[in-house]
Design a protein that fits this description.
Blueprint (H helix, E strand, L loop, with lengths): L1 H11 L1 E2 L5 H9 L3 E2 L21 E13 L24 E4 L5 H18 L3 H13 E5 L2 H9 L5 E5 H10 L4 E4 L7 E9 L5 H11 L2 H11 L2 E2 L9 H4 L10 H19 L9
Parallel strand pairs: 4-5
Antiparallel strand pairs: 1-8, 2-8, 3-6, 3-7, 3-8, 3-9
Length: 279
């Protein structure tokens, strides 16, 4: 009991557990975090930590094109985002309802950001999402609905997070595999930080170090399908080792400031409401 209480107390002094880096940036901006440069800082590439060490990344989540392996050969699957717009995929795509999903909001926002970053105008991205909507059979209310419908062949494709696809394939025997889009994909970084003014900062730092040791990172990869941010973790599962991740170049501050506006526009002006399936 004592160990449990101690762990719980330490955890309250750290901030993490699946939050993306944009949340940490918001917390930093609200003066809620204290900086801490961990002993493993040299193992984190640029982008996997805040420049002044207000947070560090623990895992990364690339977004991918998911497909039904029983009904599609790998060579038939779209190799990049724009190939999803081919009319041959009409009513073959099942998508998790984006406004209720951080994964889908990231993917949809990334499709807008691709042109917005240079033009400052989201309209090209909106046109892209209109074409995707035309090919989409359903916006599922929750991930399980989406998984089941793709597995049953009611749809052949979706877009989702790479770790979840690997887990569904290996642990639950879903007929799924994935393609990393050739032009690049948004990669969310999840991490950890120390809450400002933690009453026991040394304990918080010890916990901070513990959750990102190579041993912990390897366990998270093998048992919980998390891709480490550390570059010194060896003997990772094949689904990580054998996948080359091409990361899309994103200014996450711009991305985060615009995402709500973009998603509101999609919901009110692009989405075919008849395709939204509610629980």
């Amino acid at each position: 009991m004592t160990a449990f209480v101690q762990r719980k107390t330490i955890h309250k002094q750290t901030f993490g557990g699946g939050a993306p880096s944009t949340n940490f940036e918001q917390a930093k901006g609200e003066d809620l975090l204290d900086p801490y440069e961990p002993t493993y800082s040299a193992t984190l590439d640029e982008g996997f930590h805040e420049p002044d060490w207000y947070w560090t990344g623990t895992s990364q989540t690339p977004e991918v094109i998911m497909y039904n392996t029983k009904l599609l050969k790998k060579e038939e699957v779209p190799k990049d985002w724009d190939e999803l717009l081919d009319p041959k995929w009409k009513d073959k795509i099942i998508i998790r309802y984006p406004l209720a999903s951080g994964t889908m909001r990231t993917i949809f926002s990334a499709m807008i950001y691709r042109d917005f970053k240079d033009s400052g105008d989201p309209n090209t991205g909106y046109e892209w999402l209109k074409k995707l909507d035309a090919n989409t059979k359903e916006y599922s209310a929750n991930p399980e609905m989406m998984y089941n419908k793709v597995a049953k062949g009611e749809g052949l494709l979706s877009v989702w997070g790479m770790p979840d696809v690997a887990m569904l394939k290996e642990q639950k025997n879903y007929p799924f595999d994935f393609i990393i889009p050739a032009s690049g994909t948004p990669v969310l970084t999840e991490g950890i930080a120390i809450v400002k003014g933690a009453p026991h900062p040394k304990a918080a730092e010890a916990f901070y170090e513990f959750v990102n040791t190579p041993e912990a990172a390897k366990i998270l990869a093998e048992q919980h399908y998390r891709i480490p941010t550390r570059n010194d973790v060896t003997d990772l599962p094949d689904w990580i080792k054998n996948t080359e991740i091409k990361e899309m170049d994103i200014d996450w501050d711009v991305f985060e400031s615009q995402s709500d506006v973009w998603m509101k526009y999609w919901d009110e002006n692009i989405k075919n409401g008849d395709k939204q399936i509610k629980e």
